[in-house]
Write a structure and sequence with these properties.
The chain is an alpha+beta fold and about 60 residues long. It has one domain (about 1-60). The chain contains 1 helix and 5 strands. A hairpin with a 4-residue loop joins strand 4 and strand 5.
């Protein structure tokens, strides 16, 4: 799971394995396979980096 911030400054943990799409328009919108959509403060590059870092830690 990765930690992200909603537009109301509320942090939450997101199961990144459910992500189907991530778009910046200009806010970062994440759509999940279960139908949920989240708009977060973090830019696309940050989200991708956090996913990569999490996966590295799991494999280590």
């Amino acid at each position: 799971m990765i930690i992200l911030t909603k537009l109301n400054d509320q942090e939450f943990a997101l199961n990144h394995r459910l992500i189907e799409t991530i778009q910046e328009n200009p806010d970062t919108t994440i759509k999940l396979s279960n139908g949920n959509t989240y708009i977060v403060k973090e830019p696309l590059e940050y989200v991708l980096r956090e996913i990569k870092n999490f996966e590295k830690g799991v494999r280590a």
